[in-house]
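Changelog entry: the UDP-3-O-acylglucosamine N-acyltransferase record was regenerated in this release. Current contents:
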Amino acid sequence: MKFTALQIAEILGGDIVGNPDVEVSKLSKIEEGAEGALTFLANPKYQPYIYSTKASITIVNKTFEPENSLETTLIKVDDAYKAFSKLLEYYNMVKLNKVGVEQPSFISETATQGDNIYIGAFSYIGENVTIGNNVKIFPNSYIGDNVSIGDNTIVFSGAKVYSECIIGKNCVVNSGCIIGADGFGYAPNENGEYSKVPQTGNVILEDFVDVGAGTTIDRATLGSTVIRRGVKLDNQIQIAHNVEIGKNTVIAAQTGIAGSTKIGENCQIGGQVGIVGHIVIGNNVKIQAQSGIGRNIKDNEVLQGSPALNYGDFNKSYVYFKNLPKIVKSINDIEKKVNGNS
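Regenerated structure tokens:
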């Protein structure tokens, strides 16, 4: 799909300097720009590239004034970075704007479908499923019985949503996600073997939740595993049964959260963090990558290490740890002098 500079300027409310009829059909970095590409300049470090880029259109801040001649057409906006991000959203919306039901696919006669939906080939839609308006379900996806999917949600190829789960509006479930798998619940019996504890609950994703590729969210043993509004989950995260994650919390890749832990609002959790079960983490908590959390955490704490310490205490301790051989040598030298003088 092609767009002219004039069309893009109208979308962004920008001013054109150059040819309003020049067309673009792809996006690029400014240093890799080619004819027919759209790029942007926001970081002054990349300003030299604007004089050599072959990109047909470049989005710049209104304050930019070229010092040399340009081949590219400029679109001047208040904030080039935000404007380019807006275009990326628009580009994705156009690219993903598929409608209709592809075959072969299976849709139960008891399923309810909204308007303007897309269901890709080889998808399975179970009994009593409710699909909202503008929902996109890409090929090879599985939607189990009694699942509800809200308006404008996207389920990418190969995702699995088990029975009884609820997905809100404007969510994104990426490829390979498993929503509603059984929680890890087993009880030892008299023979020393483990018997499975039935997992009868579900998973609830509230509105505007993004779930990264390969992430698993287990259904609750009883009740619900709940991911609150606006939560953003990276790829390959494990969330166990009966966990609750507060609104607008963001979690990076390969983090594991054990069962029944409650995480507050607006938290930032780095990659490869391990969190034990049955604890409460407060609001606005920041946890650095590869930390191990084994206790309740109060609001606004910043943590690092395994087991995690207050971030400032960790950095002070690490200075001593790095210098430990020198410190030990100094102590030994002092002992030798003291013993030699006694």
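The chain has two domains: 3-95, 100-314.
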